Amino acid sequence: MTGLTVRAEALQKRFHDRDLGTVTAVDGLTLEIRSGELTALVGPDGAGKTTLIRMIAGLLRPDAGALQVLGIDVIRDPQAVQDRISYMPQKFGLYEDLSVQENLVLYADLHAVPLAERQQRFARMLQMTDLAAFTARPAGKLSGGMKQKLGLACTLVRSPDLLLLDEPSVGVDPLSRRELWKIIQQLVDEDHLSVIISTAYLDEAARCAQVFVMNEGRLLDQGPPATLRQKASGLTFTATPPAGQPARQLQARLIDAPDLIIDAVPQGDNVHFIQQPGADLADLLGGAAVQPRPEELEDAFMILLRGESEGQPISTPPTQPAPAMPARRGDGPVIVVRDLVRKFGDFTAVASTSFDVARGEVFGLLGPNGAGKTTTFRMLCGLLPATSGQLEVAGLNLRHARAQARARIGYVAQKFSLYGNLTVRENLQFFGGAYGLAGRDLRDRIAAMTRQFDLEPAAKSGLLPAGYKQRLAMATGLLHGPEILFLDEPTSGIDPLARRAFWRTITALAQTGVTIIITTHFMEEAEYCDRIAIQDAGEMLAIGTPREVREKAGPEGAKDMNSAFIAIVEAARARRAGQVAA
Amino acid sequence: MRVWLIRLMALIRKEMLAILKDPSSRALLFAPALMQALLFGYGATYDLTNAPFAVLDQSRSAPSREILARIEGTGVLRRIATLESSDQIAAQIDSGAALMVITFPPDFAARLAAGTEAPMQVILDGRNSATAGAAGGQIAAIVARYNADLGHAPPVEVVRRAWFNPNYESRWNLMPAMIASLSMLQTLMLAALSVAREREQGTFDQLLVTPLSPLQILIGKALPSIFIGLVQSTIIFLIILFWFRIPIAGSVGLLYLGLLTFTTASVGIGLSISAVSLSMQQAMLYTFMLIMPLMLLSGLLTPVGNMPEVLQWATYANPLRFGIDTVRRVYLEGASFTDIAPNFLPLLAVAAVTLPLAAWLFRHRLS
C-alpha cells in the first residue's frame, strides 16, 4: 500500500490561556506521513505532539494551514475522518467498574461494530493482548500495563485505516511495554495498518519506519531512524573511568562541560557520551579510557535538541550543594527493613522483604506495574502502615516515632502535588512551617532553595512549566535539609533533556550526603543508582549494584539494564509457574 | 510547644490562602450568603401579601358588597375575577389563578335581614395550606368584625397576642433560623471539600509525609472552616438586623457562643465526610445526601414536636436542630444561657465524635 495518510501544510494551532497568554502549540508544521507504516513523533514536553495528533483526529481545529487525513480535508469534514480512524489518548477512558469483556462490548457498540464481526474481532484482540484469561475481571482491578493493553484492544474493536497512539507507554514497565509493542508491530506487519505514535522513548522511535522530531511546535528533522542516527556519526564514545571511581562521577563531570560534551549518561560501569565536533577532551576525561561506540537514535535526538537550546547548560539546577544543608554523615544504614509485609485483605502486596540502605546511597526500586514497589515506597515514607515487620528510617522506628521519622525525610510525589494556586514562596513557606522552620531560618532556607533551583518566588506554582514544577517539588522536599529524599517515579513522562538535568541534581545531592530512594520505569536510569532492588509480585527478586544485578540476570541480561530486568522478572515468573504446576 | 504552634500556624495560613486565593471559591464564600439571605427574606414567606381571590356574588346586596369592600380593604387580598355561576368556581381554583373563591348565596341578604343564620361560602386551595389557612383566618376575622358591628356580639371572644413576633410575620420565624442553616450549607461543603480536594489533587500525601500530627491537621483544617462559617453567619445576621429590621432580643455574645458550638459540630461532620471521600465529587454527593435530612429534621419549617417519636430521637444527632433552636430562642425570645444550656450537649457530643473520627480517618482510610 502506498500513498499518504496525513498531509499537513503550514499547520498552526494556538491556545489562549487567561494566565499564560497565547501559546503556540503547533507552529507552521508541514509534513507528509506515508500509509502502511509505523511513524513516530518524538520531542520534549510541549513540542506539540499531542496537539498534532488531536488535529489529525479531527478533535482540534487548526487556526491556519491545510490538513488532509486519508485523503479527506479534516478541517471541513472531521466526522468522515473519525469514521475511519482509531485514536487512543494518553489517558484512555476505560470504565473501571465494567469487566474486560463489557468494556470491549461497550466500545464495539459505540463504534457500531456489526454483531457478526464481533466474536472474531474480540477473540483476536484478547489473544493479541493476552487478556483472554481475564475477561471477567473489572478493568479497575487490572495492572497498569494490562489496562493499557485493554485500552488498545478497545481502540481496535473495529478495523481502522489509521491508528493514532498518544504516548501509550508512559508509566508502563519494560515487560508490559515490550508486549504493547509486540501488538503494534503485529498490526503493522499483518494488517498493514498505518500507525502514528508519539513517544518519549527513543528506543521505541528507533523501531519505526519514519521518525519526526518536533520541538516547540516545529519540525526539527525527519527521516528513517538509520538516516537520523547518522547525525551523531563519529561523535559517540564510551568512557571507562579508572577502577574505583563510580561512573556517575565521571558522567557528572562530563555533562557539566556543555562546550565540549553534548550529552553523557552512565551505562553499565561506563559512561556513554557525545562530544561536540572537534572538542579536545584530554583534560576533561582525566584517566578514563575512551572507545568509539555505534551511534543511536537517542544520540541524534540529543544533538538536535542541544542545537536548539544553544549555550544553555543541560543542568541549570544545582552545581553547588545547598549552603545550609546540615551534613549528617555517619556510619550504619539509614534505612533498615526486616521481614516487611503488607497485606490488603487476602492480597499480599509485599511479602517478607528485608534490605538496608546505607547513608548517602542512591537506591533504586524497580519493578513492573503492580509489583509492590509503590506499596514498599509508601511504607518507607510512613504513608502506609506495615502489616508486620520492622521498619527503621533515619535510626527511628516507624511504628513508634512516626512524626519524628517524617521530620527527617523529604518526599517528591509522582505527579505535581503542591498547591497550584499558591505562589512558589507560599508553598515553600507552608512546607517550611510544617517542618517547624520559622522566622529567619525559614527565610534563609527559602532563599537558598529558590536560588539553587532557579525559581521565581512570586510565580504561581500551578502555572510553572513541567520542568519547573518538578524543581519546586524538589525544593520543597529538600527545604528542611532531610537525611533521606524519597522520589516516586520523578522522571515519568519527562523528556530526555529534562531527565538529564534531573539526574544531575540527584547525583549532586548524593554527594552532599543525602540518601536517595527512587522508583523509576526507565531502566537505563538504574545506572545512576548505587544499588537497585527489583521487585515482582511482592517479592524481592534481586538487590545489589547495577552491575551485580546485570550479572545475576545471566548472559541474556548482561547487555543493559532493560534486558536484565526482563530476564530476572521472567525467570522468577517461570519459577513460580513451575511451583504452581508441581 | 513553640515548634508545635509554628507547624499549626503554617497549616492554618495555607488553608486560608488556599480558600481566599481561588477566585471561584472566594466568590462562593460571600455571594451565596448575601443572595440567599435576601431571597429568603423576600421570597420565602407564608404571609398574605397579595393573595388572589374570586367572587361569586349571587345575592348582589348591600351586605355582600359591604363585606367584599372590607375584604379588599385589607390590602393583602386582591379580587381577580367576578364569577357568574357556580360551575366557574372549580376552574379558578384548579388553575391556581385564585387562592380562594367567596360565594354569597342568593338569599344571603334576606336571611340576614330576617335575623337567621346567613352562611357565606369560602372555598380555599388546600394545596397551599399555610397561606390558605392564613387567608381563611383573615376572612373569619373580617366577618367577625362585621357581625360585631351589626351588634351580634359573640358570647366568648378570643383575643390573640403573639409573643416574640407580634405581627405573626413568618419572616421573623424563618430569618433568624437562616443564620444557622444557610451558613451550615456552606461550612459543610467547605469542610467536606477541604481534604477531598487534597486527596484528589495528590497534595494530601505531601501533607501526610510532613511531621504534622493528625491533631494538627485536624485543627488546621477545622479552624478556617469554622471561621468562615462564622463570617457567613455574621453577614446573614447583619442583613436580618439592619435590612429586614428584625430586632434581637437576646445577647449577641450568647448568640455567637451558640453559633461557634454549632459550626464546630457541622465542620466535624464535613471533615468526616471529607476524610472518607476519595474525590471532590464523592464529597459533594455525600454532602447533598446529608443536607436534605438535616434540613427536614431541623425544625426549620416544621416543628420537631410534630414528628413521629423515632424521628424526634434522630434529630438529636442533627446539629442544625439545636443550632436553629439556639439562634431562634436567643434572637427572638432573648433566652439566657441557662435556658439554652441543654442545646449545647448534643452539639458538643456530635463534635466530640466527628472530629476525632475525621482525624483518625486522615491516615487510616484504606486506599
Automatic annotation (TrEMBL), chain A:
Pfam families for the chain: ABC_tran
Top-level taxon in the UniProt lineage: Bacteria
This protein's record includes keyword Iron: no
Region (Disordered): 310-330
Domain (ABC transporter) ranges: 6-241, 335-562
Start-end of Pro residues biased regions: 315-324
Family matches, as InterPro entries: AAA+_ATPase, ABC_transporter-like_ATP-bd, ABC_transporter-like_CS, P-loop_NTPase
Keywords, sorted A to Z: ATP-binding, Nucleotide-binding
Record PROSITE patterns: ABC_TRANSPORTER_1, ABC_TRANSPORTER_2
GO MF entry, a single one: ATP hydrolysis activity
Family annotation (PANTHER family): ABC TRANSPORTER G FAMILY MEMBER 20 ISOFORM X1 (PTHR43038:SF3), ATP-BINDING CASSETTE, SUB-FAMILY H, MEMBER 1 (PTHR43038)
Name of the protein: ABC-2 type transport system ATP-binding protein
TrEMBL record, chain B:
Primary residence: membrane
GO molecular function terms noted in the UniProt entry: ABC-type transporter activity
Domain called ABC transmembrane type-2: residue spans: 140-365
Keyword tags: Cell membrane, Membrane, Transmembrane, Transmembrane helix, Transport
Heme is among the record's keywords: no
Domain of life: Bacteria
Topological type in the membrane: Multi-pass membrane protein
Any Pfam family: ABC2_membrane_3
Compartments, as annotated in UniProt: Cell membrane
A GO CC term attached to the entry: plasma membrane
Transmembrane segment boundaries: 174-196, 217-244, 256-276, 283-301, 344-362
Family per record: Belongs to the ABC-2 integral membrane protein family.
Descriptive protein name: ABC-2 type transport system permease protein
Originating species: Paracoccus sulfuroxidans
